């Protein structure tokens, strides 16, 4: 059996050599511009190099819609091949050092081997995601009408047991958190008792929280709608916060950028959760109409920047217990998933770096003086600063590619994987 193709350090170095002089020249110009505002570009490079976001294992496969999924060439056929693709993203972009698995999609017989496979690529495991929103082959009871809030106690017990199993798997992988998203809700008025459904969910989650190791957290993920189009049990940040508060100090609220009502102020939600000590972290994506799962920063980059502006503010204030977890959560329907994930990681680094160069003293002075436009312009100054050379230098110094997508395409990685990984199925319906 031949060794699977990978992108070598020598190839990356050769690709960088053609770009390094121009990149250094651009960085030096940016460095001087930032210095005029009293900003140390070298310190920013170090911060960007330390920034990391988790890749979801499902993200390296082609997504789809409720109508169809069009598989791409060389898709990973199992979680070990998913890790290989995640490793390529980290090798080139140097911003994704962790993986977030989904169970049972990523169920294997030997989790020690899975952890070892990740470690050989310098990768570790982030939060484990449980799946009780789909029925699996051989599953005894159906989740068609709910899981943790189901009217049938046997179904709830099955869903609780699955989440506890996910915790056990997570411990083997070195994870420290469990993410719980449920599709529970109703599609018709009167279908569900809205109060009882929430009570059943809270009771079920209490059992899951009790099973958490002492140093673990549980992330509650809310979603406004879909597939429950009339009512969703955990539909908004307020419900999520109330439940997390009731569940105790191990429970936190996850913010997915697509899981909100249209035009809602997501950065304010972030600020509120920070204030109450219940911000778990993020599932990053972008949206145009709803929960579109588009590439991060592809539609509303200013909103992404404003989210990071709140995070930097909290970090500077040294908010107690502030340790948000970051993960990309997207569906790549018409692009190469590896390219989209690299570009999203770069956009997250960009928003992070731009938020770091906000003049906090000037911003606070304008806010205190009720200088609305002055405060806004300080944010826009940071947002419109092109930090691309700084990000490229950070990747270069970390051993990555100055231009990750260009290097990836030049490597012909996808074409090589198409040969190594023959397609195992045709066009299918469904999102994943």
Question: DSSP helix count?
Answer: 16
Gap between N and C termini: 30 Å
Assess the beta-strand content as a share of residues: 5-15%
For the residues shown, what is the average pLDDT? 96
Characterize the biggest β-sheet. 7 strands, parallel
Helix content: 40-55%
- Could you list the spans in which at least 5 consecutive residues all have pLDDT below 50? 426-430
Silhouette: globular
**Order of adjacent strands in the largest pleated sheet:** 3-5-6-8-10-11-12
Beta strands, count: 12
H and E order: HHHEHEEHEEHEEHEEHEHEHEHHHHHH
Radius of gyration: 22 Å
Assembly category:
single chain
Given helix and strand content, the structural type is: alpha/beta
Short description:
The chain is an alpha/beta fold and 432 residues long. 47% of the residues lie in helices and 9% in strands.
Task: Set out the fold topology.
Layout: H1 9-17, H2 20-35, H3 41-50, E1 55-56, H4 79-93, E2 98-100, E3 102-103, H5 111-120, E4 124-125, E5 128-130, H6 153-173, E6 177-180, E7 185-186, H7 194-210, E8 217-221, E9 231-232, H8 237-247, E10 251-256, H9 266-275, E11 279-284, H10 301-316, E12 325-328, H11 337-356, H12 360-368, H13 372-383, H14 388-397, H15 404-411, H16 413-420
Parallel strand pairs: 1-2, 2-4, 3-5, 5-6, 6-8, 8-10, 10-11, 11-12
Antiparallel strand pairs: 7-9
Helix pairs in contact: 2-14, 3-14, 4-11, 6-7, 9-10, 10-11, 12-13
């Amino acid at each position: 059996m031949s060794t699977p193709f990978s992108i070598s350090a020598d190839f990356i170095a050769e690709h960088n050599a053609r770009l390094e002089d121009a990149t250094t020249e651009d960085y030096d110009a940016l460095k001087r511009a930032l210095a005029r505002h009293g900003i140390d570009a070298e310190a920013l490079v170090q911060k960007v190099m330390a920034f990391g976001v988790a890749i979801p294992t499902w993200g390296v496969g082609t997504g789809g819609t409720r109508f169809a999924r069009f598989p791409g060439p060389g898709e990973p056929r199992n979680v070990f091949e998913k890790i290989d693709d995640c490793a390529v993203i980290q090798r080139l972009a140097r911003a994704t050092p962790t993986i977030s698995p989904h169970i049972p999609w990523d169920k294997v017989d030997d989790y020690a081997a899975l952890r070892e496979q990740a470690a050989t690529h310098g990768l570790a495991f982030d939060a484990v995601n449980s799946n009780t929103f789909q029925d699996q082959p051989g599953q005894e009871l159906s989740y068609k009408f709910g899981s943790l809030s189901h009217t049938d106690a046997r179904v709830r017990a099955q869903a609780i047991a699955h989440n506890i199993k996910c915790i056990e798997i997570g411990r083997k992988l070195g994870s420290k958190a469990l993410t719980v998203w449920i599709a529970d809700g109703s599609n018709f008025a009167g279908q569900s008792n809205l109060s009882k459904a929430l009570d059943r969910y809270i009771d079920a989650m209490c059992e899951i929280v009790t099973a958490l190791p002492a140093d673990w957290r549980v992330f509650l993920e809310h979603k406004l709608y879909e597939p429950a189009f009339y009512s969703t049990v955990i539909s908004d940040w307020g419900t999520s916060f109330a439940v997390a508060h009731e569940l105790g100090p191990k429970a936190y609220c996850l913010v997915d950028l697509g899981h909100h009502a249209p035009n809602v102020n997501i950065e304010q939600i972030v600020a509120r959760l920070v204030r109450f000590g219940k911000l778990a972290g993020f599932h990053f994506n972008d949206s145009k109409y709803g929960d579109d799962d588009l590439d991060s920063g592809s539609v509303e980059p200013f909103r992404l920047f404003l989210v990071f502006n709140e995070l930097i503010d909290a970090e500077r204030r040294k908010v107690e217990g502030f340790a948000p977890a970051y993960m990309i959560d997207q569906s790549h329907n018409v692009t190469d998933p590896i390219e989209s994930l690299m570009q999203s990681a770069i956009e997250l680094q960009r928003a992070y770096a731009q938020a770091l160069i906000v003049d906090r003293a000037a911003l606070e002075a304008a806010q205190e003086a009720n200088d609305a436009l002055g405060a806004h312009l300080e944010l826009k100054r940071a947002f419109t600063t092109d930090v691309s050379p700084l990000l490229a230098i950070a990747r270069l110094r970390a051993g990555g590619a100055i231009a990750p997508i260009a290097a990836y395409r030049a490597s012909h990685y996808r074409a090589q994987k198409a040969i190594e990984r023959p397609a195992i199925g045709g066009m299918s319906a469904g999102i994943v």
